[in-house]
Write a structure and sequence with these properties.
Multidrug-efflux Transporter Regulator, Chain: A, Domain 2; 2% strand; globular; transcription regulation; TipAS_dom; MerR family transcriptional regulator; DNA-bd_dom_put_sf; transcription
Length: 252
Protein backbone atom coordinates (compact mmCIF):
# COMPACT_ATOMS: atom_id res chain seq x y z
CA UNK A 1 0.00 0.00 0.00
CA UNK A 2 1.15 3.54 -0.71
CA UNK A 3 1.50 6.03 2.11
CA UNK A 4 -1.75 7.87 1.32
CA UNK A 5 -3.66 4.59 1.33
CA UNK A 6 -2.19 3.66 4.71
CA UNK A 7 -3.00 7.10 6.11
CA UNK A 8 -6.62 6.84 4.92
CA UNK A 9 -6.97 3.28 6.21
CA UNK A 10 -5.64 4.04 9.68
CA UNK A 11 -6.93 7.60 10.08
CA UNK A 12 -3.60 9.29 10.68
CA UNK A 13 -1.82 11.92 8.61
CA UNK A 14 0.74 11.34 5.91
CA UNK A 15 2.95 13.73 7.83
CA UNK A 16 2.85 11.40 10.85
CA UNK A 17 3.93 8.45 8.70
CA UNK A 18 6.74 10.56 7.25
CA UNK A 19 7.86 11.37 10.81
CA UNK A 20 7.79 7.70 11.81
CA UNK A 21 9.96 6.92 8.79
CA UNK A 22 12.42 9.72 9.55
CA UNK A 23 13.00 8.58 13.13
CA UNK A 24 13.27 4.91 12.13
CA UNK A 25 10.09 3.89 13.95
CA UNK A 26 8.25 2.62 10.86
CA UNK A 27 10.33 2.38 7.69
CA UNK A 28 8.40 1.15 4.62
CA UNK A 29 9.69 -2.12 3.20
CA UNK A 30 9.91 -0.67 -0.30
CA UNK A 31 10.39 2.64 -2.08
CA UNK A 32 9.36 2.72 -5.73
CA UNK A 33 11.56 4.06 -8.53
CA UNK A 34 9.47 7.21 -8.45
CA UNK A 35 10.04 7.66 -4.72
CA UNK A 36 6.71 6.38 -3.39
CA UNK A 37 6.80 4.63 -0.02
CA UNK A 38 5.29 1.14 -0.24
CA UNK A 39 4.05 -0.44 3.00
CA UNK A 40 3.87 -4.22 3.41
CA UNK A 41 1.62 -6.36 5.62
CA UNK A 42 4.48 -6.53 8.11
CA UNK A 43 4.64 -2.73 8.14
CA UNK A 44 0.92 -2.59 8.90
CA UNK A 45 1.32 -5.09 11.75
CA UNK A 46 4.10 -2.93 13.24
CA UNK A 47 1.98 0.20 12.81
CA UNK A 48 -0.82 -1.46 14.76
CA UNK A 49 1.62 -2.17 17.60
CA UNK A 50 2.93 1.41 17.50
CA UNK A 51 -0.57 2.87 17.74
CA UNK A 52 -1.63 0.54 20.56
CA UNK A 53 1.42 1.49 22.63
CA UNK A 54 0.98 5.18 21.74
CA UNK A 55 -2.65 5.07 22.88
CA UNK A 56 -1.42 3.63 26.18
CA UNK A 57 0.92 6.59 26.69
CA UNK A 58 4.29 5.16 25.66
CA UNK A 59 6.76 7.69 24.14
CA UNK A 60 7.77 7.02 20.53
CA UNK A 61 11.41 6.34 21.40
CA UNK A 62 10.39 3.73 23.97
CA UNK A 63 8.05 2.11 21.45
CA UNK A 64 10.89 1.95 18.95
CA UNK A 65 13.19 0.33 21.48
CA UNK A 66 10.57 -2.27 22.34
CA UNK A 67 9.29 -3.35 18.94
CA UNK A 68 12.75 -3.75 17.43
CA UNK A 69 14.14 -5.81 20.29
CA UNK A 70 15.02 -9.38 19.17
CA UNK A 71 13.01 -10.61 22.15
CA UNK A 72 9.87 -8.72 21.12
CA UNK A 73 6.90 -11.03 20.62
CA UNK A 74 3.86 -9.53 18.90
CA UNK A 75 1.32 -11.98 20.35
CA UNK A 76 2.75 -11.47 23.82
CA UNK A 77 2.56 -7.70 23.29
CA UNK A 78 -1.09 -7.92 22.21
CA UNK A 79 -1.90 -9.94 25.34
CA UNK A 80 -0.24 -7.30 27.51
CA UNK A 81 -1.90 -4.43 25.64
CA UNK A 82 -5.29 -6.07 26.16
CA UNK A 83 -4.67 -6.21 29.92
CA UNK A 84 -3.59 -2.57 29.95
CA UNK A 85 -6.63 -1.41 27.98
CA UNK A 86 -9.03 -3.37 30.19
CA UNK A 87 -7.46 -1.79 33.26
CA UNK A 88 -7.74 1.62 31.62
CA UNK A 89 -11.41 0.96 30.79
CA UNK A 90 -12.16 -0.02 34.40
CA UNK A 91 -10.53 3.16 35.65
CA UNK A 92 -12.46 5.31 33.16
CA UNK A 93 -15.74 3.64 34.19
CA UNK A 94 -14.94 4.45 37.82
CA UNK A 95 -14.21 8.07 36.97
CA UNK A 96 -17.42 8.40 34.94
CA UNK A 97 -19.36 6.98 37.89
CA UNK A 98 -17.63 9.51 40.18
CA UNK A 99 -18.63 12.38 37.86
CA UNK A 100 -22.26 11.21 37.76
CA UNK A 101 -22.43 10.84 41.53
CA UNK A 102 -20.81 14.26 42.00
CA UNK A 103 -23.47 15.82 39.76
CA UNK A 104 -26.19 14.12 41.84
CA UNK A 105 -24.47 15.35 45.00
CA UNK A 106 -24.47 18.93 43.70
CA UNK A 107 -28.24 18.64 43.09
CA UNK A 108 -28.75 17.38 46.65
CA UNK A 109 -29.96 13.99 45.47
CA UNK A 110 -27.26 11.93 47.23
CA UNK A 111 -24.65 12.35 49.92
CA UNK A 112 -21.00 11.88 49.00
CA UNK A 113 -17.96 11.31 51.20
CA UNK A 114 -14.62 12.95 50.48
CA UNK A 115 -13.19 9.53 49.63
CA UNK A 116 -15.95 8.93 47.08
CA UNK A 117 -15.19 12.25 45.37
CA UNK A 118 -11.81 10.87 44.26
CA UNK A 119 -12.79 7.31 43.38
CA UNK A 120 -11.20 6.23 40.11
CA UNK A 121 -8.23 8.58 40.21
CA UNK A 122 -5.00 6.64 39.83
CA UNK A 123 -1.58 8.23 40.03
CA UNK A 124 0.54 5.14 40.60
CA UNK A 125 2.53 3.80 37.66
CA UNK A 126 0.72 1.18 35.62
CA UNK A 127 2.23 -2.22 36.55
CA UNK A 128 1.65 -3.50 33.01
CA UNK A 129 3.59 -0.55 31.60
CA UNK A 130 6.47 -1.40 33.90
CA UNK A 131 6.27 -5.00 32.73
CA UNK A 132 6.47 -3.91 29.09
CA UNK A 133 9.44 -1.66 29.79
CA UNK A 134 11.28 -4.46 31.57
CA UNK A 135 10.66 -6.92 28.74
CA UNK A 136 11.43 -4.80 25.72
CA UNK A 137 12.09 -1.18 26.55
CA UNK A 138 13.82 1.66 28.23
CA UNK A 139 16.42 -0.28 30.22
CA UNK A 140 19.00 2.51 30.13
CA UNK A 141 16.61 4.93 31.80
CA UNK A 142 15.64 2.33 34.40
CA UNK A 143 19.30 1.55 35.06
CA UNK A 144 20.05 5.25 35.53
CA UNK A 145 17.13 5.73 37.93
CA UNK A 146 18.23 2.74 40.00
CA UNK A 147 21.78 4.07 40.21
CA UNK A 148 20.60 7.54 41.26
CA UNK A 149 18.48 6.09 44.07
CA UNK A 150 21.63 4.58 45.60
CA UNK A 151 23.28 8.00 46.02
CA UNK A 152 23.14 9.82 49.33
CA UNK A 153 21.19 13.08 49.57
CA UNK A 154 24.44 15.06 49.47
CA UNK A 155 25.67 13.14 46.42
CA UNK A 156 22.36 13.65 44.63
CA UNK A 157 22.47 17.38 45.37
CA UNK A 158 26.04 17.69 44.07
CA UNK A 159 25.18 15.74 40.93
CA UNK A 160 22.07 17.83 40.33
CA UNK A 161 24.09 21.04 40.62
CA UNK A 162 26.66 19.71 38.16
CA UNK A 163 23.96 18.67 35.71
CA UNK A 164 22.19 22.02 36.05
CA UNK A 165 25.44 23.85 35.34
CA UNK A 166 25.83 21.97 32.05
CA UNK A 167 22.19 22.60 31.15
CA UNK A 168 22.67 26.33 31.74
CA UNK A 169 25.88 26.38 29.72
CA UNK A 170 24.15 24.63 26.82
CA UNK A 171 21.13 26.93 27.14
CA UNK A 172 23.44 29.90 26.54
CA UNK A 173 24.64 28.23 23.33
CA UNK A 174 21.29 27.10 21.95
CA UNK A 175 20.92 30.05 19.58
CA UNK A 176 24.00 28.80 17.73
CA UNK A 177 24.75 25.59 15.87
CA UNK A 178 24.68 22.20 17.65
CA UNK A 179 27.75 21.18 15.62
CA UNK A 180 29.79 24.22 16.68
CA UNK A 181 33.01 23.74 18.62
CA UNK A 182 31.55 25.34 21.76
CA UNK A 183 28.45 23.17 21.68
CA UNK A 184 30.45 20.00 21.08
CA UNK A 185 32.90 20.77 23.91
CA UNK A 186 29.98 21.26 26.30
CA UNK A 187 28.02 18.24 25.10
CA UNK A 188 31.15 16.16 25.75
CA UNK A 189 30.91 17.30 29.36
CA UNK A 190 27.39 15.87 29.38
CA UNK A 191 28.59 12.60 27.84
CA UNK A 192 31.41 12.31 30.38
CA UNK A 193 29.13 13.13 33.32
CA UNK A 194 26.57 10.52 32.31
CA UNK A 195 29.23 7.84 31.96
CA UNK A 196 30.95 8.75 35.21
CA UNK A 197 27.86 9.18 37.39
CA UNK A 198 24.80 7.57 35.77
CA UNK A 199 25.70 4.52 33.67
CA UNK A 200 27.63 3.21 30.68
CA UNK A 201 26.53 4.98 27.50
CA UNK A 202 27.90 3.92 24.15
CA UNK A 203 27.88 6.53 21.40
CA UNK A 204 24.72 4.95 19.94
CA UNK A 205 23.05 4.91 23.36
CA UNK A 206 24.01 8.58 23.89
CA UNK A 207 22.50 9.46 20.52
CA UNK A 208 19.36 7.49 21.41
CA UNK A 209 19.08 9.30 24.73
CA UNK A 210 19.21 12.61 22.87
CA UNK A 211 16.34 11.46 20.67
CA UNK A 212 14.39 10.58 23.81
CA UNK A 213 14.75 14.20 24.92
CA UNK A 214 12.50 15.29 22.05
CA UNK A 215 10.28 12.20 21.76
CA UNK A 216 9.28 12.10 25.41
CA UNK A 217 7.38 15.20 26.52
CA UNK A 218 8.49 14.70 30.12
CA UNK A 219 12.15 15.06 29.17
CA UNK A 220 11.40 17.97 26.85
CA UNK A 221 9.50 19.89 29.51
CA UNK A 222 12.18 19.44 32.18
CA UNK A 223 15.07 20.33 29.89
CA UNK A 224 13.31 23.28 28.25
CA UNK A 225 12.83 24.76 31.72
CA UNK A 226 16.44 25.95 31.29
CA UNK A 227 15.57 27.59 27.96
CA UNK A 228 12.99 27.02 25.28
CA UNK A 229 14.30 24.73 22.55
CA UNK A 230 17.15 23.36 24.69
CA UNK A 231 15.95 19.75 24.41
CA UNK A 232 15.99 19.95 20.61
CA UNK A 233 19.41 21.63 20.63
CA UNK A 234 20.85 18.99 22.96
CA UNK A 235 19.37 16.17 20.90
CA UNK A 236 21.02 17.48 17.75
CA UNK A 237 24.33 18.16 19.51
CA UNK A 238 24.34 14.65 20.99
CA UNK A 239 23.67 13.13 17.59
CA UNK A 240 26.55 15.10 16.02
CA UNK A 241 28.88 14.18 18.88
CA UNK A 242 28.04 10.47 18.69
CA UNK A 243 28.40 10.27 14.91
CA UNK A 244 31.72 12.15 14.93
CA UNK A 245 33.11 9.95 17.69
CA UNK A 246 32.09 6.80 15.84
CA UNK A 247 33.72 8.07 12.65
CA UNK A 248 36.95 8.88 14.49
CA UNK A 249 36.91 5.48 16.19
CA UNK A 250 36.42 3.83 12.80
CA UNK A 251 39.27 5.82 11.28
CA UNK A 252 41.59 4.60 14.02
Amino acid sequence: MRIKEVADLVGISVRTLHHYDEIGLLVPDQVSDTGYRIYSENNLALLQQILFFKELGFPLQTIKQMIYRPSFDRYEALTLQRKMLIEKRVQLDQMIATIEKTMQHMKGEVQMTNEEKFAGFQFDENPYEQEARKRWGNDKVDEANARLRKLSNEQQLALREEMNAIFKELADLRSGFPASKEAQVTIKKWFDLLNQQIGQYSFDAFKGLGQLYVDDERFTKNIDAFGEGLAQFMSQAMRVFAERQKEEAGAD
